[in-house]
């Protein structure tokens, strides 16, 4: 009967224990709730380009990417570990049974014996050691969910970037191939004129120089395209023989999504890596609390119900009930526990620093991408106007050359400037699209003010 008062005393002590709490330091970021209230949230920002082929490739990447699948497995593993630790908070049952036969060879008698035992044990969580450990793992599970979202965001951004990079490269290669055909035909014409003595030896050399320059550019562009194709295949988990099916499009006709630059840099409540860092502070704190609680005595109570009989029919006629209380004194190993506490405290301090680092990294990313996007818009406008000017100059020099007023070199120089301006224009448009998507990845979604519609391009 002494077991009952002892157990009641333990329960009273357990009731006095309180759940440790932690307040996450204010990061100065705009929270998810405030963002959802003040802005429109578009988590599928790539669909704003209206490109069905791009939508298909993004969906394929989400379905096939191995890094995303491994991250999902990590989330499931964290859930299993949280469930496993949660089992420490419920009673543990055990049971056994047996039968034996003993034969006395001298007396010729056979004795049968049947036994069965059912037990239950439970560790009293007096100091919330077990509940803190279980809660710590639950926070880690939440953090791995945010890790999965981080991988997903990076995957989508890389796929969109690679897709438009290939669109740009395909068009740049197409333009360069047209230039090569032009210079090849022009070189044939100049060679014929040189053969008949109508031009001097400098003009064929000048035309050949322009042709070789375009051929070199083509090889560089093709090598770059192969590298980007490799990147996209890896993201989609495709083999070399699998088709990517990137159509030849005019990247200049791709509509810009018009990033809302009025969105504050601190609107980072959607950033999954920041949320993961916050969750890991909670996890590290609770783990620290659990380790500190492991210093205090641990009390386990248990009970067994056992029966025994020489006949199976009367096995449960006379059951025996026994109870036990086990007290562990872990503080006797203080030297070991002390260092475990220090290690957990260090993990907690590291988690706080990780949050600070994640916040600063996020703020700097958005600030830099905003700056780069503004510059890319200005550069795109300037390059576009320069291309228009170079195109007019090239046409003017062609007319003067055909009229005999200018040398071939003047026309080819103007034509080369026009071609180069077009290639730079294509690249500038791609860079602007790239910065758009980098901003959406950095913010965690495409954010726009409720009061604003889609602004004209």
UniProtKB/TrEMBL annotation:
This protein's record includes keyword Signal: yes
Gene3D superfamilies linked: Outer membrane efflux proteins (OEP)
First and last residue of the signal peptide: 1-17
PROSITE patterns xref list: PROKAR_LIPOPROTEIN
Molecular functions per Gene Ontology: efflux transmembrane transporter activity
Keyword annotations: Signal
One Pfam family in the UniProt entry: OEP
Superkingdom, taxonomy of origin: Bacteria
InterPro entries in UniProt: MdtP/NodT-like, OMP_efflux
Family the UniProt entry places it in: Belongs to the outer membrane factor (OMF) (TC 1.B.17) family.
Name the record gives this protein: TolC family protein
Natural source organism: Oxalobacter aliiformigenes
């Amino acid at each position: 009967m002494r077991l009952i008062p002892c157990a009641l005393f333990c329960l009273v002590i357990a009731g006095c224990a309180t759940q440790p709490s932690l307040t996450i330091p204010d990061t100065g970021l705009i929270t998810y709730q405030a963002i959802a209230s003040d802005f429109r949230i578009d988590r599928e920002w790539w669909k704003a380009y209206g490109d069905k082929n791009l939508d298909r490739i993004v969906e394929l990447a989400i379905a096939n990417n191995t890094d995303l699948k491994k991250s999902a497995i990590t989330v499931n593993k964290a859930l299993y570990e949280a469930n496993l630790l949660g089992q420490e908070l419920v009673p543990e049952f055990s049971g056994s049974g047996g039968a034996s036969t003993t034969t006395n060879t001298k007396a010729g008698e056979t004795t049968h014996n049947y036994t069965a035992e059912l037990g239950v044990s439970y560790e009293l969580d007096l100091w919330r050691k077990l509940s803190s450990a279980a809660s710590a793992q639950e926070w880690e599970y939440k953090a791995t969910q945010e890790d999965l979202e981080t991988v997903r965001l990076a995957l989508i951004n890389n796929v969109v970037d690679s897709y438009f990079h290939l669109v740009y490269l395909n068009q740049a290669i197409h333009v360069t191939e047209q230039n090569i055909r032009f210079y090849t035909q022009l070189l044939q014409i100049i060679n014929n004129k040189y053969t008949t003595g109508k031009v001097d030896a400098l003009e064929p050399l000048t035309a050949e120089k322009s042709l070789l320059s375009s051929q070199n550019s083509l090889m560089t562009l093709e090598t770059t395209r192969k590298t980007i194709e490799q990147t996209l295949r890896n993201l989609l988990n495709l083999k070399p023989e699998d088709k990517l099916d990137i159509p030849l499009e005019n990247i200049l006709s791709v509509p810009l999504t018009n990033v809302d630059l009025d969105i504050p840099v601190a609107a980072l409540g959607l950033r999954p890596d920041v949320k993961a860092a916050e969750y890991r502070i909670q996890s590290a704190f609770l783990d620290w609390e659990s380790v500190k609680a492991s210093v205090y005595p641990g009390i386990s109570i248990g009970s067994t119900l056992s029966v025994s009989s020489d006949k199976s029919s009367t096995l449960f006629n006379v059951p025996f009930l026994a109870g036990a209380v086990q007290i562990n004194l872990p503080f006797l190993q203080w030297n070991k526990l002390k260092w475990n506490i220090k290690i957990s405290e260090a993990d907690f301090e590291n988690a706080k620093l990780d949050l600070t680092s994640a916040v600063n990294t996020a703020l700097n990313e958005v600030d830099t991408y905003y700056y780069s996007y503004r510059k890319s818009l200005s550069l795109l406008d300037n390059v576009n106007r320069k291309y228009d000017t170079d195109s007019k100059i090239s046409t003017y020099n062609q007319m003067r050359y055909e009229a005999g007023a200018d040398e071939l070199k003047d026309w080819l120089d103007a034509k080369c400037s026009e071609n180069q301006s077009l290639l730079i224009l294509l690249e500038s448009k791609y860079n602007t699209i790239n910065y758009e998507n980098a901003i959406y990845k950095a913010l965690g979604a495409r954010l726009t003010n409720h009061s604003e519609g889609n602004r004209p391009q």
